[in-house]
């Protein structure tokens, strides 16, 4: 495998870099990691799924390996992202470069964000997963399968209501929307059942992004096909006239939905630009769900390598908190080290005196703004330390960052926070740009004590106690106030037997508070507002809504899709 890294001068696009790499067949990439030809289900030469029997074997073999779990998370990002995926991929490559058996695991991109603001989500520069164009588009069809499975539940639910409604479903208490893997704001709220007698029973409905579907969370937390089926069966889709839950199993949809997901549950294997094996599987939101790749991929990765490098969505207040309090509990695993990605851009974003921020100004050198932005960085470091896991800060360097700005952050982390820190140049240099970071991670992981890990709250705490703990300890709120149906929802959840499950707080990712316009990290002086609480019964947690979080984003005025093209030879441009 070879690539030409242009250390000086303008960088080629991600697509140009990806096309310049001589990739190896996927079976050659994974053969040293214990997988054989018959273990794989192929999607061309460079993409494969792992067969169920091979996944089971790898999970058994995991207990015989040193299991070092590295979680990559971040400070509160700008809307453009600060490079968590780039850091995850680059760190995995660098650990391999240092002679470790490392495996990377990230989420599958959703077509909505790909064509919206952020563009592709396969890493970037010389730290990306390949084939990036396939991964960012249809890939192995997992998200299409999830969309179809989700909507099969919807149509079977409406068919039941239309044809007699033997379950006495309250049409005003249907909880299951429809799903689409595209940012389409006009579908957030709809009216279905129009068209007279043949159109069904009229009621209000709507769409969510496939990544926000409970089915996505279920797929990513299931341990095998049987567990997936059991989780699907208990998903609550509506309530009847007596306020009793109606499940997927009640409308006889369990078997058919599971059939549609029989291949989607098999983890996808690809390679990084330097040939490190990479799982790209599942893609739940980090607010409405837990925001990490599939648990089944993680467990398979533990059977292949001594290091698993994975990431959690959005900032650490969302993704890392959920990883520790939900994924680690349900998946019976513990991180050895957590890498907090920071950027000069994000620090200045939180340190600017005026809001809204002029993004052009973030490219201008401003050490004072960087220092004012430490408030946000420091809060994230403090939050992560509450889980008892060592923290390493990675400064993801962008081309316009000055040496003075970067040195200011390095000094602050070392002298004021007493935390290991390294400048990361894996975007421009691949593994060569991550050596110091990887050495810090390896040293910390080898010294870490898994018994020191602790979740933030006990599952035996009441629902309100759990919410209060996350609100005050992680977000920095003084108190919590309950509006709308929240108080009644909590009582309903208690009566339905959901008091002892983890909670998943849905909050804006633009701020560490529940107000997207608030930057930095306010310590007290505000209340977290909870508006609704409902069960994600298949996934195994309660969703707690705060603020105004969109489950179906819309395209911006200038979407990424407007700058994408393909020529007569099939060469793609604009896909980052």
Task: Explain how this protein is built.
This protein is an alpha/beta fold and 576 residues long. It folds into three domains: 311 residues, P-loop containing nucleotide triphosphate hydrolases (Rossmann fold); 116 residues, Domain 2, N(10)-formyltetrahydrofolate synthetase (2-Layer Sandwich); 84 residues, Formyltetrahydrofolate synthetase, domain 3. Strands 1, 2, 3, 4, 5, 6, 14, 15, 16, 17, 18 and 19 form a twelve-stranded mixed β-sheet that branches. It has a four-stranded mixed β-sheet with strand order 20-22-23-21. Helix 7 runs antiparallel to helix 10 and helix 9 packs across helix 10. The chain starts with 13 loop residues before the first helix and ends with a strand. The relative contact order is 0.16. The N terminus is likely disordered.
């Amino acid at each position: 495998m070879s690539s030409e890294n242009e250390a000086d001068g303008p960088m080629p696009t991600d697509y140009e870099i990806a096309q310049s790499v001589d990739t190896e067949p996927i079976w050659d990439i994974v053969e040293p990691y214990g997988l054989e030809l018959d273990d794989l289900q192929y999607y061309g030469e460079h993409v494969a799924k792992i067969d169920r029997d091979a996944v089971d074997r790898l999970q058994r073999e995991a207990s015989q390996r040193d299991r070092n779990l590295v979680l990559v998370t971040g400070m509160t990002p700008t809307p453009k992202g600060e490079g968590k995926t780039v850091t995850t991929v680059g760190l995995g490559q660098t650990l391999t470069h240092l002679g470790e058996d490392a495996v990377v695991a990230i989420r599958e991109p959703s077509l909505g964000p790909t064509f919206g603001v952020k563009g592709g989500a396969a890493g970037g520069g010389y730290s990306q997963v390949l084939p990036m164009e396939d991964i960012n588009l249809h890939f192995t069809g997992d998200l299409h399968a999830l969309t179809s499975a989700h909507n099969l539940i919807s149509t079977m639910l409406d068919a039941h209501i239309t044809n007699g409604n033997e379950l006495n479903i309250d049409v005003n208490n249907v909880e299951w929307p429809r799903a689409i893997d595209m940012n389409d704001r006009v579908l957030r709220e709809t009216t279905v059942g129009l068209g007279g007698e043949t159109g069904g029973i009229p009621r209000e409905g709507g769409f969510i992004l496939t990544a926000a579907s409970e089915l996505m969370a279920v797929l990513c937390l299931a341990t095998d096909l049987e567990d997936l089926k059991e989780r699907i069966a208990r998903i609550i889709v509506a309530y009847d006239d007596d306020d009793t839950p109606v499940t997927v199993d009640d409308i006889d949809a369990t078997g058919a939905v599971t059939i549609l997901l029989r291949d989607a549950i098999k983890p996808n294997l690809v390679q990084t630009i330097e040939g490190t094996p990479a799982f790209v599987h599942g893609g739940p939101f980090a607010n409405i769900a837990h925001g990490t790749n599939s648990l089944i991929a993680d467990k398979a990765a533990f059977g292949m390598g001594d290091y698993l490098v994975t990431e959690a969505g959005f900032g650490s207040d969302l993704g890392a908190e959920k990883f520790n309090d939900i994924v680690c509990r349900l998946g019976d695993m513990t991180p050895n080290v957590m890498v907090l990605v920071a950027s000069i851009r994000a620090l200045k974003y939180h340190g600017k005196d005026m809001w809204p921020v002029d993004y052009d100004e973030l490219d201008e050198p401003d050490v004072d703004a960087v220092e004012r932005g430490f408030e946000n960085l420091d809060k994230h470091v403090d939050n992560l330390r509450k889980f008892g896991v060592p923290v390493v800060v990675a400064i993801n360097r962008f081309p316009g960052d000055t040496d003075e700005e970067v040195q200011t952050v390095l000094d602050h982390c070392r002298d004021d926070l007493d935390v290991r820190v390294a400048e990361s140049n894996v975007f421009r240099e691949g593994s060569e740009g991550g050596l110091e970071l990887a050495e810090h991670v390896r040293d910390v992981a080898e010294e870490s004590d898994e018994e020191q890990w602790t979740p933030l709250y006990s599952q035996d705490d009441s629902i309100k106690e759990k919410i209060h703990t996350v609100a005050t300890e992680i977000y920095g709120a003084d108190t919590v106030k309950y509006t709308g149906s929240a108080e009644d929802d909590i009582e309903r959840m208690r009566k339905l037997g959901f008091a002892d499950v983890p909670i998943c707080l849905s909050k804006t990712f633009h701020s560490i508070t529940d107000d997207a316009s608030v930057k930095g990290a306010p310590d007290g002086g505000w209340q977290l507002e909870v508006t609704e609480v409902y069960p994600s019964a298949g996934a195994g947690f309660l969703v707690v809504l705060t603020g105004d979080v969109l489950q179906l984003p819309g395209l911006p005025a200038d979407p990424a899709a407007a700058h994408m093209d393909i020529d007569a030879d099939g060469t793609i441009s604009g896909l980052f």
